[in-house]
Automatic annotation (TrEMBL):
SUPFAM superfamilies: Metallo-dependent phosphatases (SSF56300). This is CapA family protein. Residues 2-233 form the Capsule synthesis protein CapA domain. SMART domains: PGA_cap (SM00854).
Length: 385
């Protein structure tokens, strides 16, 4: 059996105007026996939504999900509660009605902990991290409240302990910081600790919205983040909630970041967030391979990367994986510096967006005039008469 794990999946935005069969052009994707993805949003017709940056679709998104022939989805992520408790329940009901597997979140904690069985020997368990500055506003399931299965070592070991003898688990994690190449050092340490457990077969990660490398330890792999598989462009309304305009309004701004806005804004992903890897696991041969894919900028079209672009992505994954092998103090320093640089660079791009939204970069004439004014101040005798 060929298991194919793909990265973050969002079926809203521009994807709602397209048929999945016409926008996913990947031989590896369509030829897999079993496909598993991270469903990064609730599917609900419920009107209310959380007071946060939100992602969601209505029930029409199920048509595309079924057309993808996805076998199961991980619903343990920080957006599954964007339509509040009812959104979680609606999503689970939609998946059940479509006979699609799901794991990692549930109507209560016991439901959220339930594994999804691939076959008699292998199952998948899903978890979402929480309680960090980079992963907050996450609702953890309790005995009387829907939510996600918490990503904590004690919770994982408890769930592994309930597997029957001989059964192996693939762990699907939603963890780490967004928009970075290097995961937190604590996540690398946790991955190695779990790969030493005989009951763990592999770890698949998501959340960073870009490709990260892998950990190879004890003869097994932890892929820290697969990146965005299908994450179309979408509209946002203030403060940062996804919206679906009835008509395509003119005059809206475009941003490459995810941040509060003050008017209708079109969210597009930067190039580094449109590349992802699919992990192909052959259960009979116990072999693993990766397939780089890319989402086009103007439309949610997915293509297999080939030639030079494929080699670049494969090399980058290999290079990052080598960096993860650095001694812990060295890696922690590198990861912290990378994280800080990413924050400042992102803030700079957001600041530029806000200045542009105020009209300061509306036309080249403004910039030319500003430079001309500066030259005149520097050389007052050369001003025109």
């Amino acid at each position: 059996m060929r298991l194919l794990f793909v990265g973050d999946l969002f079926l809203g935005g521009d994807a709602q105007r397209n048929e999945i069969g016409k926008i996913i052009h990947s031989k590896a994707f369509w030829s897999a026996d079993t496909k598993i993805a991270n469903l990064e949003h609730p599917i609900s017709n419920h009107a209310l939504c959380a007071d946060k940056c939100t992602l969601f679709t209505d029930s029409s998104a199920m048509n595309n999900l079924k057309q993808m022939n996805i076998s199961a989805v991980c619903v343990a992520n920080n957006h599954i509660h964007d339509k509040l408790d009812q959104g979680i329940l609606d999503t689970l009901a939609e998946l059940d009605n479509a006979h699609l597997g799901h794991f990692g979140a549930g109507m209560d904690d016991s439901h959220a902990r339930m594994p999804w069985d691939i076959n008699d020997e292998i199952c998948i368990l899903g978890y979402c991290d929480f309680g960090h500055s980079y992963l907050n506003k996450v609702q953890v399931a309790s005995h009387n409240k829907p939510g996600v299965n918490p990503l904590r070592l004690e919770s994982i070991l408890r769930d592994l302990g309930e597997l029957r003898d001989g059964k192996k688990a693939i762990l699907f994690f939603h963890w780490g910081r967004e928009h970075v190449w290097l995961p937190p050092v604590e996540d690398i340490h946790l991955a190695k600790r779990l790969l030493e457990d005989d009951r763990v077969l592999m770890i698949i990660g998501s959340h960073s919205h870009r490709i990260q490398g892998y950990i190879r330890h004890n003869g097994k792999y932890a892929f820290m983040s697969l990146g965005n598989f299908l994450f179309p462009n979408f509209f946002m309304r203030p403060p940062a909630q996804i919206t679906y305009p009835n008509t395509e309004e003119a005059g809206y701004l475009t941003t490459r970041e995810y941040h509060p806005v003050f008017a209708l804004t079109y969210k597009k992903w930067p190039a580094v967030c449109r590349a992802s890897i699919m992990v192909d696991y052959d259960t009979e041969r116990s072999t693993i391979s990766i397939h780089p894919v890319y989402q086009e900028d103007a439309s949610p079209t997915i293509i297999d990367l080939e030639g030079l672009r494929r080699r670049v992505v494969v090399f980058w994954v290999f290079f990052l994986s080598g960096v993860y092998k650095s001694p812990r103090p060295v890696y922690a320093t590198i990861a912290l510096l990378h994280h800080k640089a990413s924050i400042y660079w992102r803030y700079a791009k957001i600041a530029f967006f806000y200045l542009r939204s105020l009209g300061m970069f509306e036309t080249p004439r403004y910039i030319i005039g500003l430079l001309s004014y500066h030259r005149k101040r520097q050389n007052p005798g050369n001003s025109e008469k």
